[in-house]
């Protein structure tokens, strides 16, 4: 895995852990809505934090396609590379 | 059965509220008596959650205009304006709205929800960018999904955050369209429109302002927050609704932009739905006349808003950031909001419960809205009922802090 990919994963997992009411084990297979019980606004708020930490723009339709944390890491990676 | 499995958790919550006999999402008034009172469960109930800001729902001139229009032009238009033609009233109301706002053009929609769908989805094409305030109303979020533009959210009421996000999009092709509201419907807070307008100019963006809760409430002549903030020239489109201060149903948009007429043949939520019936159009025109000629309604509304806000603040409720006709008490949990709502209703006071994801930051709210039609005595009575119910449930700030 490239340095950038692991940095992105770290930022995403760290930001999410801080946003959850209690600590949870997280993996690439974790379903953001079903497993973590976040509602649609909480997910958008969490992605906003990631946008700021990585200085990228993640359009809402891209968020709608994301199901697992692995999907999110891949989406963010693509956007970061394009930026 | 499987079709509804995805809603199982929500359905269980709803059933629980029904079983408890106090479901804020399924209230049935037996009879509505006036802008401020209704019969509920056999009891005369004070209404403090109806968005009836100017209290015009029973205004004789408004009701008479509706009746006369029904008699003269029939009960409905049975079709859309592009396919089945406009009635005289549609054009007259659009001219009245354009005149009120001092704009070249006005367009009427069948609801405020559809006005947002219709304007936002048509303005933002495939390569354009919509920038939405994070706390935007559901109709604005839905509008952004109806079109094909890229959608970016910025932090609520933060011009700096908007600027930062526009900077990130600087090299992307396409127009940038900013969407904000005048008064936000959940916490009653207002947008820093002057600062947003400066950011808009700096980045060469467009701006749409939804004045749903601020029309008839703010501004020297009641046009809304853009008028109060002195930035109407920067608001390319103003969107609003007839369902609150204008006491009817419907929505509108006004603009000075050249070529905006084309929206009538590209905006799907305008084209593919029936136009408003004559009664509703005539009532709205009459209500707009009341709004324009009776500034004392606005003054009374704002006095009532301050009276309720200061009263609940004094009791020790945690409220939204500023007084407005929407006064929301922030509850520690949804259960607390349900509890307070039910206790108030039992005591004869109707309010609203607002829950996430409709609310910002996961907040549970006990939401009230005041009307110009409330007497000061009615507001004081409501505050007294809040005092009783709030303290018996331990929901005042000091009690909550002590419980922690
Ligand atoms: C900000 C905002 N925009 C639009 C609407 C929709 O208005 P209408 O009730 O006319 O559909 C509402 C009200 O529900 C609102 O609060």
Secondary-structure blueprint of this entry?
The complex is a heterodimer of chains A (83) and B (404).
Chain A: H1 3-19, H2 40-54, H3 60-65, H4 69-82
Helix pairs in contact in A: 1-2, 1-4
Chain B: H1 8-19, E1 31-34, E2 37-40, E3 43-47, H2 60-73, H3 81-84, H4 88-101, E4 105-109, H5 112-123, E5 129-133, H6 138-146, E6 150-154, H7 159-168, E7 176-181, H8 193-203, E8 206-210, H9 225-229, E9 237-241, E10 251-255, H10 268-271, H11 278-293, H12 295-315, E11 326-331, H13 334-346, E12 349-350, E13 352-354, E14 364-369, H14 376-392, H15 397-403
Parallel strand pairs in B: 3-12, 5-6, 5-7, 7-8, 8-9
Antiparallel strand pairs in B: 1-2, 2-3, 4-10, 9-10, 11-14, 13-14
Helix pairs in contact in B: 2-11, 4-11, 5-6, 7-8, 12-14
Residues 111-113, 116, 137, 139, 181, 185, 210, 212-213, 241, 243, 251 of chain B line the site of pyridoxal-5'-phosphate.
What does this structure look like?
The complex is a heterodimer of chains A (83) and B (404). With 83 residues, chain A is mostly helical. Chain A has a single domain (3-82), classed as Orthogonal Bundle (Non-ribosomal Peptide Synthetase Peptidyl Carrier Protein, Chain A). Helices cover 63% and strands 0% of the residues of chain A. In chain A, α1 (3-19) crosses α4 (69-82). The longest helix of chain A is centred in the N-terminal third of the chain and has 17 residues, at 3-19. The two termini of chain A are 20 Å apart. The model of chain A has no long low-confidence stretch (mean pLDDT 89). Chain B has 404 residues and is of the alpha/beta class. Chain B has two domains: 9-47 and 295-403, Aspartate Aminotransferase, domain 1, CATH 3.90.1150; 59-293, Aspartate Aminotransferase, domain 2 (3-Layer(aba) Sandwich). Helix content of chain B is 42%, strand content 16%. Chain B has helices spanning 8-19, 60-73, 81-84, 88-101, 112-123, 138-146, 159-168, 193-203, 225-229, 268-271, 278-293, 295-315, 334-346, 376-392, 397-403; strands at residues 31-34, 37-40, 43-47, 105-109, 129-133, 150-154, 176-181, 206-210, 237-241, 251-255, 326-331, 349-350, 352-354, 364-369. In chain B, the strands form three sheets. Chain B has a seven-stranded mixed β-sheet, sandwiched between helices. In chain B, β1 (31-34) and β2 (37-40) form a beta hairpin. In chain B, α2 (60-73) packs antiparallel against α11 (278-293) and α7 (159-168) packs parallel to α8 (193-203). The longest helix of chain B is centred in the last third of the chain and has 21 residues, at 295-315. Chain A binds chain B through residues 39-42, 44-45, 48, 51-52, 55-57, 59-61, 83, and chain B through 134, 144-145, 150-153, 155, 164-165, 168-169, 356-357, 360-362. The complex binds pyridoxal-5'-phosphate. The site of pyridoxal-5'-phosphate (PLP) has 14 residues of chain B, from α5. Residues 111-113, 116, 137, 139, 181, 185, 210, 212-213, 241, 243, 251 of chain B line the site of pyridoxal-5'-phosphate.
């Amino acid at each position: 895995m490239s340095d950038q990919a692991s940095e992105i994963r770290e930022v995403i997992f760290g930001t999410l852990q801080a946003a959850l009411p209690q600590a949870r084990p997280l993996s690439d297979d974790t379903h953001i809505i079903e497993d973590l019980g976040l509602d649609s606004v909480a997910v958008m708020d969490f992605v906003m934090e990631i946008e700021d930490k990585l200085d990228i723009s993640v359009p809402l339709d891209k968020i709608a396609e994301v199901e697992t944390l692995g999907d999110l890491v891949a989406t963010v990676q693509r956007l970061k590379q394009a930026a | 059965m499987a079709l509804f499995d995805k809603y199982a958790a929500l359905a269980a919550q709803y059933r629980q509220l029904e079983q408890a006999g106090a479901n804020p999402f399924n209230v049935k008034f037996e009879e509505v008596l006036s802008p401020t009172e209704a019969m509920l469960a056999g009891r005369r109930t004070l209404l403090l959650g109806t968005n009836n800001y100017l209290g015009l729902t029973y205004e004789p001139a408004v009701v008479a205009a509706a009746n006369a229009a029904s008699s003269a032009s029939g009960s409905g238009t049975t079709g859309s304006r592009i396919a089945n033609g406009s009635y005289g009233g549609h054009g007259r109301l659009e001219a009245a709205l354009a005149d009120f706002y001092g704009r070249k053009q006005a367009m009427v929609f069948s609801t405020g929800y559809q006005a947002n769908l219709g304007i936002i989805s048509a303005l933002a094409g495939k390569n354009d960018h919509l920038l939405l305030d994070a706390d935007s109303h559901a109709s604005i979020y839905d509008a952004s999904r109806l079109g094909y533009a890229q959608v970016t959210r910025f932090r609520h009421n933060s011009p700096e955050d908007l600027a930062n996000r526009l900077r990130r999009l600087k090299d992307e092709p396409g127009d940038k369209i900013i969407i904000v509201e005048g008064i936000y419907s959940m916490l009653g807070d207002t947008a820093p429109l002057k600062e947003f307008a400066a950011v808009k100019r700096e980045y060469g963006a467009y701006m749409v302002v939804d004045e749903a809760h601020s029309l008839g409430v703010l501004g020297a002549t009641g046009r809304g927050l853009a008028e109060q903030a002195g930035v109407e020239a920067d608001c390319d489109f103003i969107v609003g609704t007839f369902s609150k201060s204008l006491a009817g149903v419907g929505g509108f948009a006004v603009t000075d932009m050249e070529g905006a007429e084309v929206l009538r043949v590209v905006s799907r939520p305008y084209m593919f739905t029936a136009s408003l019936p004559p009664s509703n159009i005539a009532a709205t025109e009459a209500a707009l006349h009341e709004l324009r000629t009776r500034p004392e309604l606005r003054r009374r509304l704002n006095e009532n808003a301050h009276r309720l806000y200061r009263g609940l603040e004094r009791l020790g409720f945690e409220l939204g950031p500023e007084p407005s006709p929407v006064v929301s008490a922030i509850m520690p949990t949804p259960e607390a909001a349900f509890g307070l709502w039910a206790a108030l209703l039992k005591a004869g006071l109707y309010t609203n419960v607002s829950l996430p994801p409709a609310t910002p930051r996961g907040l549970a709210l006990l939401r009230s809205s005041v009307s110009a039609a409330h007497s000061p005595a009615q507001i004081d009575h409501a505050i007294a009922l809040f005092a009783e119910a709030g303290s018996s449930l331990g929901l005042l700030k000091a009690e909550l802090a002590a419980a922690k």
